[in-house]
Amino acid sequence: MANRLNMRSSLHTKPLLNALHARFGEEFSVDENLAGVDELARIAGRSVHRRYLDREVDPDLLRLLCACALSAPSKSDLQQADILIISDPQKRRVLADLVPDQAWIRTAPAFLMFLANGRRLVEISKLREKPFPNDHLDLLFNATVDSGIVLASFMRAADAVGLGCCPISVVRDHSERISEMLELPQRVIPVAGMCVGWPAAANSVSPRLSLATTLHENRYSEGNLAQSIDAFDHRRALTHALTQRDPALWGTADFYGWSEDKARQFGVPQCAGFGAYVRKQGFRLE
């Protein structure tokens, strides 16, 4: 009886342990009696989905998931995040044309834009005839963090019902055009887009940097960063081979790992006009 119980317990934690091993390349200890193991396994094993079934996402379901996402914690209860559902086919085509190398923007059954909203707090101060001496960088920071928390909460809610998601941060390369199209007022900016749909296939777990690199206690300590990055590059290459980025510009590497890919990606300008755009939208960065 005890052996059967232990076997059932081991099977209960196995998906979580497998996901964490695939993610971080190390073994974890999980209490067999820990509550919420199934949910932890879903979180640890989640993946981005870029291919979707030809199946609509019901608008009522999408609204429900947005409501769940907007139930996320908010800094000082300021509620500075919005979600904008883009259902207009013409606007979807414009977005897809702006980012032609990400075909899933065009094919996803649903597309959302997550917004940082620094406007409402300023307007509330006017409505209540109070001064607003906090028109500085923290206003932008609070709103973007709130938006990021809502985005992550949306993905968790979508996972719970079997939907797949793909965040699209490159929309910030086209912030001004997107703001015009979506009629975003002053102090409201796009943080990221989100493709949503029913996954066409299961995806494997994407490895992450070791916890020795990204998890700290009491003080920041990155250890031997070069060694850690090299070890991660080789571990990730075992399951996730990458196509060499811009070989005409950078040449061809004998070994092409994650760090080489990221260095090449950010070796050319990214979102170079974003600061000017944010200022134009009314945020102060001082």
Describe the model.
The structure is a single chain. This protein is of the alpha+beta class and 286 residues long. The chain folds into two domains: 59-201, 3-Layer(aba) Sandwich (NADH Oxidase), CATH 3.40.109; 222-286, no CATH class. 47% of the residues lie in helices and 10% in strands. The chain contains 13 helices and four strands. It has helices spanning 2-24, 37-44, 59-69, 89-98, 104-107, 119-127, 137-160, 175-182, 211-214, 225-237, 247-250, 258-265, 274-280; strands at 81-85, 110-117, 164-168, 188-197. It has a four-stranded antiparallel β-sheet. The radius of gyration is 22 Å and the shape is globular.
Average per-residue pLDDT, rounded, comes to 94
Radius of gyration: 22 Å
CATH superfamily of the largest domain: NADH Oxidase
- Low-pLDDT sequence parts: 1-8
Instruction: Measure the end-to-end span.
Output: 66 Å
The CATH architecture of the largest domain: 3-Layer(aba) Sandwich
**Percent range for β-strand residues:** 5-15%
In a nutshell, what does this entry contain?
This protein is of the alpha+beta class and about 290 residues long. The protein has 13 helices and 4 strands. Helix content is about 45%, strand content about 10%.
